[in-house]
Design a protein that fits this description.
Blueprint lengths: L11 H11 L7 H21 L5 H11 L5 E2 L6 E2 L1 H14 L5 E2 L3 E2 L1 H11 L8 H21 L16 H12 L4 H12 L16 H21 L29 H5 L11 E2 L10 H14 L6 E8 L1 H8 L2 H4 L5 H5 L2 H11 L9 H4 L2 H6 L3 E5 L8 E7 L4 E6 L12 H11 L9 H11 L8 H6 L14 H6 L1
Parallel strand pairs: 6-7
Antiparallel strand pairs: 1-2, 3-4, 3-5, 6-8, 8-9
Helix pairs in contact: 1-6, 2-4, 2-5, 2-6, 2-18, 3-4, 4-5, 4-9, 5-6, 5-7, 5-9, 6-7, 7-8, 7-9, 8-9, 11-15
Length: 485
């Protein structure tokens, strides 16, 4: 096991970069490798499910229309395009169904790094599974620890200043895969620092599609940054995270709680990426404690929607900000993103259907009068005594009973994790919603190959290629071209 400590007063990003560059597959503990494979499988699965959702085909059409050097496949659609454009098309698929993983403090991450890596395999003659897995794990660790240093999720940051650290993970992933030295990686991250794409809570409002397409811009930029870095473009590398004037964390200084020690504490000995949560439900993570609590109440007390008089949810600060306000929008959602981030829509769907998955977001589902009508029986308030993702649910039944409970650790949380078997089942459940429907044999093979990445000699051939549509002659074929013809 290799460990990394800050040398004198070096910037913490320098330390993280040494970890990325110097860590090999053999340095990674077995449990970290297994966790990484589970994450990669999860993101490929949700990308498959997201590939058929609204707006994705339009992005693929845009990407294909640009032309360019055929480097990387577009999974679930077909055709080869420049690697950066393949990343631009693939990354929004990873977020479209909002069922990817999240870290309690650093937020979404693998939805950026996995698409970047899959697209970047087109830049090499061959990428082994060990190379891909190592690049993924160290990039996730760099991204997550950068988020830790500024308490990204637990502190409400000034508008427009949150989430910029995502591009650091995507750049580190591509750079590791391409064999960057420490100096090259620092330079690439220096460019990325000037191209960070922070966002505020407005991305979750108004039904805007940027909540998913933001991922495409980040993944595309990551590959372009690495390639341009090798062409000689330079970025600033001093005062990277630290530095009162020019450091990245200066963005957050007025909110306090900048912790440089957290960035490198036990680096290499303790893998923070393993504190990542997986999603068991196809909705914003901020609804999951409420979903689990409702499902538990329904099982234990054996009631259905017809028995319910009303429901009241007291929610933690993050849940409140993301899925409960503004109330005018959350109680009357229209678009798919609005419904995914609407606490009353999600809870109403769950009490009607016993769960929520992609079929809850079709035009027909979004127009259901039973779900819409029941939303008026749901109310919510902020309770700052709860953890940011915690929920207290009080369900009043028509027979006079009042059932109350609290959930702070949802299914998929590191302390209540999804098993590998559950992630594989989730993968299979996503398959029918894909733009390109894999047969059962292909699905099984992809799952098998991802869970045995250490034995795969060519990721593009054994993981990416099975996701690409092919006609009878075996050539990649675009579903959009089929539709147009």
């Amino acid at each position: 096991m290799r460990t990394f400590q800050r040398i004198a007063d070096e910037d913490p990003m320098e330390t993280l970069c040494r970890m990325v560059v110097e860590t090999s597959y053999d340095d990674l503990p077995k449990d970290v490798r297994e966790f990484g494979k589970k994450q990669i499988l999860d993101i490929i699965g949700v990308s498959m499910g997201g590939s058929g959702m609204d707006g994705i085909a339009d992005v693929v059409a845009f990407v294909r229309d640009q032309g360019g050097k055929p480097e990387s496949h577009i999974p679930f659609y077909g055709g080869k395009v420049p690697a950066a454009m393949a990343a631009f098309a693939l990354a929004p698929m990873a977020r479209a169904m909002d069922m990817g993983d999240t870290h309690y403090e650093a937020g979404h991450g693998a939805e950026y790094t996995v698409p970047t890596l899959l697209a970047a395999t087109g830049l090499k003659d061959k990428t082994s599974g060990r190379e891909l897995l190592t690049a993924f794990i160290v990039a996730q660790e760099l991204m997550i620890r950068t988020g830790l240093g500024c308490s990204f999720k637990s502190i409400e940051q000034p508008g427009g200043s949150a989430g910029g650290h995502y591009i650091f993970g995507a750049v580190a992933a591509a750079a590791k895969l391409l064999g960057f030295s420490h100096a090259e990686l620092m330079n690439a991250l220096g460019i990325a620092k000037l191209m960070t794409q922070p966002h505020d809570a407005s991305m979750y409002n108004e039904g805007a599609s940027m909540i998913r397409f933001h991922h495409g811009f980040v993944a595309q930029d990551a590959i372009n940054i690495c390639r341009m870095s090798r062409f000689g473009v330079t970025g600033p590398v001093k005062e990277f995270l630290a530095g009162e004037q020019r450091g990245y964390y200066a963005l957050f200084a007025r909110k306090g709680r900048i912790d440089l020690d957290a960035v490198t504490h036990e680096l290499g000995a303790r893998w923070e990426m393993m504190r990542t949560s997986f999603k068991a439900h196809a909705a914003c993570k901020c609804t999951h404690t409420g979903i689990d609590l409702l499902l538990e109440q329904m099982r234990e007390h054996e009631f259905s929607v017809g028995d319910v008089e009303s429901m009241h949810l007291d929610v933690g600060s993050l849940n409140w900000t993301v899925v409960a306000i503004p109330k005018a929008e959350k109680w009357k959602p229209e678009t798919v993103p609005q419904c995914q981030f609407s606490l009353p829509y999600v809870i109403s769907t769950v009490v009607h259907d016993g769960g929520i998955f992609l079929d809850a977001y079709t035009p027909q589902a979004r127009a259901r009068t039973d779900v819409r009508g029941f939303m008026d029986r749901i109310s919510a308030d902020l309770d700052e005594s709860l953890p940011p993702l915690g929920t207290r649910l009080t369900t009043k039944l028509r027979d006079g009973r009042a059932i109350a409970g609290v959930c702070t650790i949802e299914k998929g949380h590191p302390d209540n994790p999804l098993t590998v078997e559950e992630v594989a089942a989730k993968f299979r459940r996503c398959a029918p919603f894909a733009a390109y429907r894999l047969d059962d044999a292909a699905i099984s093979k992809v799952i098998e190959n991802v869970l045995a990445l250490e034995k795969i000699s060519d990721v593009a051939a054994d993981v990416v290629s099975p996701l690409v549509p092919r006609d009878v002659s075996g050539r990649p074929k675009s579903l959009l071209a089929e539709a147009a013809s």
